[in-house]
Amino acid sequence: MEWKGRRGSRNVEDRRGMGGKTLVGGGLGGIVIVLLVMFLGGDPGDILSNLSTSPANTEYVETEQDKELAEFVSVVLADTEEVWKEIFEQEGMVYREPILVLYSGSVQSACGMAGAAVGPFYCPADERLYIDLSFYDELQTQFKAPGDFAMAYVIAHEVGHHVQKLLGTTEEMARIRRQVSEEEYNKYSVRLELQADYLAGVWAHHAQGMGVLEKGDLEEALNAASAVGDDTIQKRARGYVVPESFTHGTSEQRKAWFYRGFEAGNLDEGDTFSAGNL
Ligand SMILES: [Zn+2]
Asked: Each residue's pLDDT tens digit in the chain (278 positions)?
């Protein structure tokens, strides 16, 4: 992706090196997990449990790679702001820009305390995206999804969750979550996540329109979408898959919905909840 020297977003909050320790003394009594939407699978409860085990504030030294990545992330965020502002305007709505928090190690969000192991996530309660830049290396080594556009897809997916919050989908999901069993809810979760992939694709469509996509970028995103599919992750982690436990969709589904958004470039084709066959 062409990004060097381009405008960055003013909505980046740099908390690297701060740890999550500022709020540790305050206790978590008043914090309620509304609905935490993570890039990868996982139980929001795990995040809170990280609190007692998260290491004390360790010093953070910015590497050259991180410096570059932080700039990159900021440019991608600025691009998403532009695209979603325009799409929302066309729909007669106003786009409220989210804040992107860069952190290292652990971070406090309105959805609870998170460690880096959680992966990038969006917290609807404070409308912030949380990203530990070390995830870029993880994408490359653990998920075999290298490339700047793989990372751009991750950010665009989290922004997709923010779009869902603004559209009221997140709230509706929280309501459903209180009413159905965990296994039943997983099916809704898959649809929510695939829609975030679709919305990431919508953004990529416009990035292409702006002429900032480079050869191979689309493939990087599709490869990343495939790499984070539930079946692929489960197969690697335990050697078999448990479809009932899927929360994000299979590799095939994630790729397909990203691509569908990429082709459409608008909200029209993105109703994963009504789609009979995902
Ligand atoms: Zn997600």
From this structure: 999 999 999 999 999 998 765 444 334 433 444 455 566 655 554 454 444 444 555 688 999 999 999 999 999 999 999 999 999 999 999 999 999 999 999 999 999 998 877 889 999 999 999 999 999 999 999 999 999 999 999 999 999 999 999 999 999 999 999 999 999 999 999 999 999 999 999 999 999 999 999 999 999 999 999 999 999 999 999 999 999 999 999 999 999 999 999 999 999 999 999 988 78
Ligand 1 center to 191 CA (angstroms): 10
DSSP state of 27: -
Instruction: Tell me the whole-structure pTM to 2 decimals.
Output: 0.89
In what order do the strands lie in the sheet containing 128-132? 12-14, 99-103, 128-132, 121-123, 37-38
Ligand 1 mean position to 100 CA, how many Å?
Answer: 15
| Alpha carbon of 190 to ligand 1 centroid (Å) | 9
Beta-strand relationship, 121-123 and 37-38? antiparallel
